[in-house]
Amino acid sequence: MTAKPFQISVSDDVLNDLRTRLARTLFTAASDTTYWAAGTDPGYLRELVTYWADGFDWRAAETALNAYPHHIAEIAGQQVHFVHLRGRGAEGAPPPLPLILTHGWPSSFVEMLRVAELLADPAGHGGDPADAFDVVIPSLPGFLYSELPQGPFTRRGVAETWHTLMTEALGYPRFGAFGGDIGGGVTQWLGSLYPGEVAGVHVTSAVITTDFREQPPTAEEEAYLEALSAYDATDQGYSEIMCTRPDTIAAALADSPAGLVAWIIDKYRDWSDCGGDLETRWDKDTLLTVATLYWATGTIGSSFRQYYNYPQNRPVPTITVPSAVTLSNEPAYANIPRSLTERLCTDLRHWSTPERGGHFMAHEEPEQVANELRAFFRPLRSGS
């Protein structure tokens, strides 16, 4: 099992077709006079689409992405794309600790690139070379250049694929894991399934059990779960359709780049720590780099598979490896009691609530995430 070098290359025909579609976009009127109250604001969308059609330089973005070392590995008949940054450790010191970073939805490997640079080369960014990591950033199955599995998309299944990628394709006998959202679930499963190989797990979306049969929730936990349910009632429209009718919405988004980017940026605004102002966190070039990757690969529909297959996920078993949480400041997690995570993580060594950075924390606050990861994994490098 070997990994082969890979380069991102979008054809001129795809880009020309994209610009033609963007130029012919039919825009809707706002349903509410309050800015963004009913979803992606049509005025902002028009501005973004206009720039995408005649201003955004995809070739410059493509060149920047290809400056990173991309690879493709075939695992159990499934193509897996990943970026692999070798750590620059101290001369004569133990080798860098391998670390796999897993993104969520509607994200991509792009979310992890800046933090990966900081982790792989700490000395180059004012840090200690002893903190260097070998960083692996895979694309989730069905996202961009990674293929869907033959069976259902489950977080456990992805964890099994990542374990094979790390231990067999890349030859790492021991590694750490980090992620948020779907990536957090995958990271949890890695820690639960492979305590012999996984040095520790670090997540930004806290672990929540669904089994309260033996120990009912405390009053504090019950209050949080009720608040989460109330929040979901206002936010979950997007997930309801992707869980039940993914092919219907995918047909629209695969045919309309304006619809595609509207679907994505609605979540970038809602879930990031931007205070309602999207461009305080995301410039247009960043948003359109992600959108162009989804468009060029035709994978917005396959990225929904993990929603459609969600009922086939099972509760994460007890996690015994050292665990850490740097809590996202998005509404779904900002006030979660630590005790909910302690129900599943028997060795919770690090709990941090920086109150900065939302759903895409590694992208929003890369320095913060790098510092948290260094601090958590520092005593775990030698296997203690």
UniProtKB/TrEMBL annotation:
Protein's UniProt keywords contain Manganese: no
Annotated family: Belongs to the peptidase S33 family.
Domain of life per record: Bacteria
Enzyme Commission no: 3.-.-.-
Keyword annotations of the record: Aromatic hydrocarbons catabolism, Hydrolase
Pfam families referenced in this protein's UniProt entry, alphabetically: EHN
GO terms for MF: hydrolase activity
Residue ranges of domain Epoxide hydrolase N-terminal in the record: 4-112
Ranges annotated as spanning the membrane: none
UniProt protein name: Epoxide hydrolase family protein
Protein's organism: Microtetraspora malaysiensis
